[in-house]
Amino acid sequence: MSALLSQINNTAHQGAFGHNPRSEPTLAQLAAGNYKKGVVMVKGLSIAIENPAYTYRKGMDKSGKEWMCLMQAHYGYIQGHRGNDGDEMDVFIGNVPENDTVYIVNQKTADGYFDEHKIMLGFLSQQQAVDTYQHCFERGWTGLMSVVPCTMTQFKWWLANGDKSRPVTLDRLPYAGLERLDSVIWGGNDGSDLASHSGQVHKLLYQIRQCDDTHQALEPLSYNDLVQELGNQGFMYENYDALVVEYNKLEKKAKQLLMVMQGAASSVKPIGVTVGKPLTKGGVANVVAWFEMDDGQAVGVFFHNPDKTPKKIDPMDEMISYKWVLNKKDITIAVAPEQGKDLIIRTVAKRIMQLVEKNHDRFVKANGDKAALNQAEQDLTAKVAEKQATLKGLQDDVAALQAKKAEKDAFTLQAQTEADLRQREAEAQAAEAERLAQEKAAKDKAQADKDAADFRLTGSNLPADVAAAGGQQDLLASGNQNDKEDAEKEAFVTSTQEQQPPQPVSEPATPTQEDQDREFLQSAIDEKINILDAANVNKLAELSKIYTQGDMNGLIKQAKQVAISAITRSVAQATANIG
Length: 579
Known about the structure:
Helix content is 50%, strand content 18%. With 579 residues, it is an alpha+beta fold. Among the domains are: 1-173, no CATH class; 463-495 and 513-578, no CATH class. The strands form four sheets. Strands 1-2-5-6-8-7-9 form a seven-stranded mixed sheet, with helices on both faces. Strands 12, 13, 14, 15, 16, 17 and 18 form a seven-stranded antiparallel sheet that branches. A hairpin with a 5-residue loop joins strand 5 (74-82) and strand 6 (88-93). Helix 10 (360-458) crosses helix 11 (463-499). The protein is elongated and about 195 Å long. The protein starts with a helix and ends with a helix.
């Protein structure tokens, strides 16, 4: 429970009907109203609570019959504000007193006429407010005519300025931003002289500006703005013959009104009027009239035909003005507080022209400043466009240079690549040439070494001597190979003999002449043919002749090809020595 609700509950039970030792008032006291009530402040309103919630409210009707109803909420009245019945304004307080929305109930009599207003404060929704209201009367209660929600500021304005003798409607409440406007009263012979605000129009205009947070009174108004406002509300053009006829008459009346406004003005003059085509919404026809002033200001008037046939405008129908705007600010509450009741449109025209003239200086200055700002904005916009164009040109130049650089880099890279390939190819060729040179040098060195070895062997550079020496070397190499093979064979035989059982020793055989010759040749080969004495040379020469012509086994065939040149040379040398 909030602190405010707790305070309200405690205060409610301080009265005669509260939970306290006091006795309940008599019917006479009830009729006179002279009994104890609890008084509390809610949203700046002083409220006297007669009956706390869930207590019985009692009374006597005009016929003398007593009645009694259980109250579903705290019930009392707003002090200092009287309703249509002459008593102070009745009010119900719900469980959410902090809520800023107020629900005004228009109550009717049994025969359907307006009776009085009932105020519902502190309810979460309109349905909750209606249910509470209905349950505070007898079953089958039919006194509810309508309910109008509004803000607390609108409600307070209505308490101060509204007509309590008629049902409240939304169009009888001030538009947002004008709730703080003091009650406007016009007087004089024709009702066009300001009686409130010390009779000074500039004070009224000052209050209007205080309520104009977005400076709509200084915003120029065009004809299209008026039409668009109706369009935003869902109005549409419709073609009705009757509307066309009355539309022509309305144009004539608007021009007459223009003349009235021109006559009422001194410093600012209306210079023209435009009447729009009829638009309809929900079967109600609307027409707008736009009055243009010579200083750039404008006045807009909204007309409708709220009779039994709103879609059809008869020649005798009167178009009612229900909304007036100065520039873009709704000032209906200020210039037509009577809400159309016995209001002559020419009177409103005179009133509004007074506001137009008082608004002139501020409007001209604001729009002059705005024009200067607009011009400065245009100049800056042009400069921005110029700088953007320059920037784009520079960006294009940068892009072109980057493209050239990329092309040059690609060409340079290609040239570098080709140069690298040529360099690598040259290096490969040089490496190959070096390899070949090294191979040739190695071959030359090997040949030189060979020639030197041949020279050491033969003592001669003659090809025949070198070839003979080469043959001897080959014989020696072959001998070495044979020695190796013989050693392997001997090792194999030895191993075989060791594995075989010992054989009986036989008498050595007598060697034949061929065996002796073989032994001699074998020994000559084993000694690498170093036997150069005459007897051996002769013997080698003799054997060479014999076995060259004849048939010799594998040993002689092997030695013949390798040793024949050396033997020949040795024989020749030995023969020379003998000779």
